[in-house]
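[step 3/7] fold_predict: job queued, chain A
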Amino acid sequence: MRLKRVGYSTKIKRIRDFNREVNKKCKILTKKGIYVQSEGEKKIADWLYDNNIEFDYDKLIRFGEDEEDFNDSFDQPLWARPDFRIKGTNIIIEYWGVLNDPIEKKNRNLELNDIEETYIDEIERKRALYQQEEMILIEIFGSDLDELDKSLKHKIIYTKKE
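[step 4/7] structure written:
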């Protein structure tokens, strides 16, 4: 079957290149036997594993049902790679590991560097997308990592009751 839109293969290549770049950064081994990008993600993955919660890590989710939606998905917010998705649910866990400092700066109207601005833009894009697609977003910050039993367990139990 030939695809109708010009540029489809270019967009697919961009997604594959992006996937390769992300996968290169996954160097930290978890108890589940998967590699993650940061110590914070490792703590979350190990906590989920220790609590017998099945999850996918950093797996591409495409939103939209037809070919045209997918063709546009790399340019428009119709795709995401959440840090974690609890299998069999619409629960997404995002670890905003770099967020604490940039969001504090933004709240105080201090100047952000380009990386911080891009990070915040991506967070806002994902938040809006998850809300639009009726996904349940659990946000974990650096300050939550030392007490995942309190922060993550409480958030998962609370969201499963909704």
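[step 5/7] annotate
The first strand starts at residue 28 and ends at 29.
Residues 32 and 49 are 6 Å apart (CA to CA).
exit 0
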